[in-house]
Amino acid sequence: MNAASPSILAALSPSDNEELAQRRAVLAEIDASCRGPLLFLFSGSIIWLLVGTVFALLASLKLHNPEYLANYSWLTFGRVRPAHLNAVIYGFASEAAIGVTLWLMCRLCRTPLLFGWIINAAGVFWNLGVTIGVVAILAGDSTGIEWLEIPPYATPILFVSYALIAVWGVITFRFRREKHLYVSQWYLLAALFWFPWIYSAAQILLVLDPVRGTVQAAVNWWFAHNVLGLWFTPIGLASIYYFIPKVLGKPVYNYSLSVLGFWSLALFYNWNGMHHLVGGPMPAWLITVSIVASVMMTIPVITVGINHHLTMWGSFRELKTSPVLRFMVFGGMSYTLTSLHGIALALRSVSEVTHFTHSTIAHSHQGMYAFFTMVMFGAIYYIMPRVLQVDWPSARLIRVHFWAVAIGILLYVFPLIVGGTLEGMAMTNPDVPFVDAVKPSVVSLTLPYLKTRSYSGMLIFLGHLAFAISFGWIVLRWAQAGRLARLKTSLARV
Amino acid sequence: MSVLWILFVCSLVVLPGIALLAFRWAMRQGEFRHLEKTALSIFDDDEPVGQTTDCFPGGQRGKKPAPTRPPNPISRPRLPEA
Amino acid sequence: MNYGPILFLGIFLTVASSWCGLVLIPHLQFGRQQPVKIEETGELYPQSRPGIAQQGMAVYQANGCIYCHTQQVRAEHFGADIARNWGQRRTVARDYIFDKPVMLGTMRTGPDLTNIGLRQNSVTWHLQHLYTPVITSKGSIMPPFRFLFEQRKIGAKPSPDAVPLPKEYAPEPGYEIIPKAEAKALVQYLLSLKASAPLPETR
Question: Which chain A residue is nearest to residue C69, measuring alpha carbons?
Fold first, then answer.
């Protein structure tokens, strides 16, 4: 046995070396203090992941097969699609993000998770809010505003939940034992601060007291783009900045660069949203501002890219042994790719063709899935064994998960980018009919790509099942280990 | 549209106010000094630089053959035997 | 690292400033536009929708037509919107001042609907199309909205509301397809969609 092999278990199993064991106890104490809230949040997020994937598959199948399950109002495409979005964004991704944020905050502040009940209460409210929201969307009660479909009677519940989390964040930060703020903490604190600001501003200006006319569209895309840029992206990047160095045991390549990356992201990202409205009924200056800001995004993207890839440089062999690293590196590479692609899409001449096509959808999945979701998977693989003090039950399941979702998402994104671009080229050519019984048309041209997407969706679903099984199993193992330990102590007492 | 004005005041007064306070605090904490050192703050004696901290389950229990290359003393120092 | 402090201050300001720049200033610039008098017709444009069309808008909203249809026409030489006859002019902010919510849309899985009320003003066409889109548009991938209709036994005499359907889509003999109130309202909404009045800013 190679003494130098990586050491989840070494970290977990009580060591003979008393002193070492004691030092480990600090980390272990922090990890253990997160157990309850994280189990709750991650279980919730995985259930939403499965629910959201089912909606996604339904929507994808319905798009090329419109008669499929067509007679149920609550399963019509126009309801299943927003149900999918809200289930994965607010159910899965946000919940996983909150879980990972908690753990990272505790670890980086070097303080155990205090007031776990706040988080548990927040988790209950959050799940309640999302459930009511998704059911309402299926029942036909959507607000009709993209990314904000959840009706106004469910959003206050989300607010309460969010407020609790923010309060918790402040408390934890207040009681921190580590003086230095690592770059991940900048990102996490910023995200915790930004999200309520953009969410409440958008709710007020769109739902409670709507502004007039197309200003609504401006608010809408200011919000929808910032959810990605100021909520998911910072948490994703915070995770990458923590886990890659941590797994490799290698400090980040250039720390100052990471700080620059953070500030430039904060500076430019929130001005990006209007590039969703290129050519729309808005003053040109508004859109130009966003295009310029989008192009400026090259700065944070390149700094993050340099840091991430150069930290990895020379350590690619670890990808063979570390599942966490695989997901993280996949996510990091996707971040670079998707951001550069996004910058290109914001340009007027490109947008003229690709706007309104499936390539936008491909792009958003590249960001939300190939980057963010993969990073969350990796983080959960790292966190769970430490929090539960048992190892993952099956390497095979992890491999199945990784390969299914990795191949699945590549098969989703790249063909659909191509298909969407072709669709756009056909759509901007008035000689191609939009739809036709026999002639090639804009609609018929997209069909093969839409079908490919359904296959990729099935593969991704398979991966998610493997993940859910793994997760259920490790929880089961932990429960059993707990029972065994209790048995032992009671036997010892006899 | 009075809501807009409330938000406007928030954005121009409250947020910069918070920003200034946060900034003053960060300066006092010395947050902007010793940046490169901060990169090391995620490591400690338990999990020092040079020690990888993740592997596939079973990777250590010998179910899968351990990596064949010789341990690299720089990237992976010896751990105390468990 | 002395550029750090400057950036740190800048960041909080930018979140606020982006809000001012992308939300507040647009609101001040075009958030209070009013209808104008069109010289040619002497009428005010735009006008708020009649009640039934407003109800139809709720149906449009509930069933997610927005995920496949846009309601915006881009300018003459930007894309082929006008060449495809989706409108005679580009749409401008004033066209939307009475819409709540504004449903510009971001996807064109189906054609733009800004001017569908001009392009297709037959109620029967719309009802047939909503009932089963391939009746009117072969090759369509638009989902059928049959749940907006009900199948009824024909009474003493056929209902005047019944949707005429080609044989292969018709219900079994003795039954007829009647649009529910939602379907009727939705069609009224579609018919109300027109943005062709020559506004000063589009000339």
Answer: A356
CATH number of the domain bearing residue C104: 1.10.760.10
Which of these, A311, A293, A169, lies nearest to A235 by C-alpha position? Answer: A169
Give which of B32, B33, B34, B38 to mutate to test A binding, by max A Cβ within 10 Å: B38
Residues A333 and A406: their CA atoms lie apart, in Å, by: 12
Boundaries of every domain in chain A: 17-180, 192-494
User: C31 to chain B, minimum CA–CA distance in Å?
Assistant: 10
Closest CA to A386 of B54, B58, B50: B54
Contacts of C136 in chain A (CB under 8 A): none
H/E stretch holding C36 reads: strand C36-37
Residue A27 and residue A8: Cα distance in Å, rounded?
13
- Mutation target to probe the C interface, by most C beta carbons within 10 A, among B8, B9, B28 is B8
Alpha-carbon distances of A463 from A53, A405, A411, rounded to whole Å = 11, 5, 14
Q: Rounded to whole angstroms, how far apart are CA atoms A475 and A85?
A: 28
B60 touches chain C (CB under 8 A): no
For chain A, give me the number of helices (H) and strands (E)? 20, 0
Q: Which CATH class is domain A192-494?
A: mainly alpha
Contact C16 B23 (CB under 8 A): no
Query: Of C1, C16, C31, which has the smallest distance from its Cβ to B15's Cβ?
Result: C16
Residues 6+ apart with CB under 8 A from A169: A101, A105, A189, A192
Encode chain A (494 residues) as per-residue pLDDT tens digits: 333 334 444 444 444 455 555 556 678 888 888 999 999 999 999 999 999 999 999 999 999 999 999 999 999 999 999 999 999 999 999 999 999 999 999 999 888 888 889 999 999 999 999 999 999 999 999 999 999 999 999 999 998 898 899 888 878 877 888 777 788 988 888 888 888 888 988 998 898 888 888 999 999 999 999 999 999 999 999 999 999 999 999 999 888 888 778 878 887 888 888 889 998 998 888 888 888 888 888 888 999 999 999 999 888 988 989 999 999 999 999 999 999 999 999 999 999 999 999 999 999 999 999 999 999 999 999 999 999 989 999 999 999 999 999 999 999 999 999 999 999 999 999 999 999 988 899 999 999 999 999 999 999 999 999 999 999 999 999 999 888 888 888 888 77
Rounded to a whole number of angstroms, the CA Rg of chain A reads 23
Q: Which of A64, A276, A427 sits opposite C108 (nearest CB)?
A: A427
Q: d(Cα A398, Cα A469) in Å, to the nearest integer?
A: 10
Q: Is A280's Cβ below 8 Å from some Cβ in C?
A: yes
CA distance linking residue A311 with residue A334, whole number of Å: 16
Would C96 be classed as within a structural domain? yes
Q: Which domain holds residue C121?
A: 36-146+181-202
Dihedral sign (CA A343, A349, A354, A359): negative
The predicted model scores a pTM of 0.89
Using a CB-CB cut-off of 8 Å, the residues of chain A touching B34 are 180
Number of separate domains in chain C: 1
Q: Do A212 and C4 touch (CB under 8 A)?
A: no
Question: Helix, strand, or coil here: B47?
Answer: coil
ipTM of model: 0.92
- In whole angstroms, give the CA distance from residue A20 to residue A6: 16
Which residues 3-42 of C are in CB contact (within 8 Å) with B? Answer: 4-5, 8-9, 11-13, 15-17, 19-20, 24, 27, 31
| CA A199 to chain CA mean position, Å | 17
Distances (CA, A) of C103 to A178, A182, A481, C86, C109: 49, 43, 55, 16, 15
C44 touches chain B (CB under 8 A): no
In chain B, where the domains are located: 2-39
C13 and B4 in contact by Cβ < 8 A?
A: no
